[in-house]
Amino acid sequence: MKKAYREQGESAVIHGNSGRHPANYTDEKLREEIIRLKKSEIYQGTNFTHFRELLEEYENIKISYSTLSRILKSSGIISKRCHRPEGKRFRRRKRKSSFGDMLQADGSSFDWFGNGVRCTLHGFIDDATGIITGLYFCRNECLMGYLEVLRQTLVNYGIPLEFYADKAGIFLVNTKKSENWTVAEMLAGKTLDKTQFGRIVDEQLGITMISAHTPQAKGRVERLWGTCGLKSDKTACLFGYG
After folding, report:
1. For 134-192, how does the pLDDT look when each residue is reduced to its tens digit (9 = 90+)?
2. Do residues 40 and 112 share a domain?
3. Can you list the positions of beta strands (E) in 20-131?
4. Are residues 193 and 118 in the same domain?
5. Could you give phi then psi for residue 141, rounded to 5 degrees?
6. For position 188, which CATH number holds?
7. Residue 208 β-bridge partners
8. What is the distance, to the nearest Å, from the Cα of residue 41 to the centroid of all Cα atoms in its chain?
9. Is 135 helix (H, G, I), strand (E, B) or coil?
């Protein structure tokens, strides 16, 4: 370095790459064009990956994802991503360990026979195994439909420990009634009146009724209707119609 300084002067201590662009340098005009295109109406809704693919296909601009991301982020542009909505998130409930521990109950109104007439398919499905313990058609969702499915279940499988159903009036008395209770009644442990179905399963069979707050909570029986819908022609022959 001393020899170079004596021969070349101050220029000898200047790095050889000084003033040169790095190998991965992107031309300023190209940077401006990429930013302009991303802010345009055509591309502003795309994420970085999709935008990069569209640049190569329609604008004849080939650029690596890392370079594209660096250029756009330096201009205050962020990638459009799908984020889960804020709010309460539910953890998936584990299945029961044994058959008969819990049956999920529900009814689905649909044009099952393809004749333009809606009817309701009532059904129970075992939470642990996914076995369907009973199905029955009625014109509307009703007590008779659920009692027939209950009869099929008892005859073929026995008495389950729990029922998991929604808050339909067939299963539970309207909870608004509890809003009119006095403080003394609540302290005394007063409970809601039971429906006819509730009295049968609780008092006569000893089955515990559990109410679901959302359809997702009893997802197995909700997904059952999609399965039955694919086989609706066979279902009409296999199960009774009330």
Report:
1. 999 999 999 999 999 999 999 999 999 998 888 778 887 765 555 555 656 556 555 55
2. no
3. 103-110, 119-126
4. yes
5. -70, 125
6. 3.30.420.10
7. 162
8. 31
9. strand
